[in-house]
Design brief:
The protein is α/β, with parallel strands linked by helices and 172 residues long. It is 20% helix and 27% strand. Belongs to the complex I 30 kDa subunit family.
Length: 172
């Protein structure tokens, strides 16, 4: 018997109630939101439930929404895959302006790198992570470059000529 979206939704709402919500089909991925303080419980349930069997973490990433209210400034998105049924799901947890969420590196070892990368670029603190430090940027950086407040260009650069980037003033 194929794993249906309604089966996933029913099991989750039965177990977690109002902590899981906004279920919807987005193209070929069933998605929903969770309260951020329930991330480890929900993900562990999805992995260990004998019917659901979401044993593979495909991706974990951060998003910055600077125009949202203060409790929805950041989000962590998890993509899980059930290989038995070839079923994929997306889980989103919104965070406030000082973002932190519990690590899932004890549930999926592969999340170690992904959480470090998300911290490096977005500044999202993964509580309990065994080694949360920069992974791609320089250790000396004091900012998180994927945040929307980070400038897209270095205004101090002298090696650029705006003419090559289509930013010239009117022709004389």
């Amino acid at each position: 018997m194929a794993l249906e979206n309604s089966d996933i939704q029913n099991k989750l709402t039965e177990t977690f109630g109002e902590n899981v919500f906004n279920f919807q089909q987005e193209k070929d991925i069933f998605s929903f939101e969770i309260k951020s303080d329930k991330n480890t419980a929900v993900i562990l349930f999805l992995k260990n439930d004998p019917t659901l069997r979401f044993h593979f973490l495909t991706d974990l990433c951060g998003i910055h929404y600077p125009d949202n209210d203060e409790n929805h400034q950041f989000a962590v998105v998890y993509h899980l895959h059930n290989w038995y049924e070839n079923k994929r799901i997306k889980i989103k947890a919104y965070l406030n302006e000082t973002p932190s969420i519990k690590t899932i590196s004890n549930i999926f070892l592969s999340s170690n790198w992904m959480e470090r990368e998300t911290w490096d670029f977005y500044g999202i603190d993964f509580i309990g992570h065994p080694q949360l430090k920069r992974i791609l940027n320089m250790d000396e950086m004091i900012s998180h470059p994927m945040r929307k407040e980070f400038p897209m260009e270095d205004s101090g650069r002298t090696d650029k000529d705006d003419r090559f980037f289509g930013r010239t003033t009117t022709n004389s």
